[in-house]
Description:
Blueprint lengths: L1 E11 L2 E8 L6 E5 L9 E6 L1 H16 L3 E5 L16 E2 L1 E6 L9 H6 L6 E6 L26 E5 L2 E6 L1 H16 L1 H7 L6 E6 L1 E2 L2 E2 L9 E6 L8
Parallel strand pairs: 2-5, 4-14, 7-10
Antiparallel strand pairs: 1-2, 1-8, 3-4, 3-6, 5-7, 9-10, 11-14, 12-13
Amino acid sequence: MKLRTTVHRVRAGRAEYRVVSAVPGEGRAVLYGDGDGDSGGWELRLYADRAGARDLAAAWALAARSPRSLVHLPLRTGTAPEGLEEEGAVRMDLVLLHHSLGFPPSRWKEVRARLGGGGVAHTVDVPASDFPPEGELDFTSHHFAEWRDGLRFAGAARTLFLTGSAEAFRWSGTLVRSLDTEAAAELARRPNRAHYCVTLNHDAPGRPGRSPKGVPGQLHMVYAHEWKVTG
């Protein structure tokens, strides 16, 4: 899996952050939240075509391998597929980061403003074998207080932050990758199926899918089989 990126080092206050930003390519994806708030509402919707889904999977794998970086996907400029436009919804960016960074989302607006148009160009190549087979995923452990490998959601500056361990990104990455590897074939086998989707939840220990007030609780990711852009 390959992803074109630019690598930035940004100083904010006394801290310096390494930001890996995906470079828009042939893949298309757009992330929507509700209302005018920075969090984007409780549920967010992400639409991606197959190439866009492939980029998302590569970003997930990169986040698992890069505990000292913020992996940034600039999705706010995307355009939804025809028929899936959401009037009044807020377009949002996506940032994936390891929990050990301790990065406060409230600082993101300042960091993003300093990215500029520069950065060191780099193509990331990560093996698909980083993700465990879907048949090996066991979600029963998510319901126990000892669970520490879930994704935590937060919203700030019209950006969704997914924070977790390397294992959390590998596990959830298996589901994200299915938008590329399984969605098209599944829709061909079942033409009456409305759509192919993956849902990720805010996964606090012992409380899967139950997010604090003001924090997004769910990310609904939809494979856009026939992406047609209007305008």
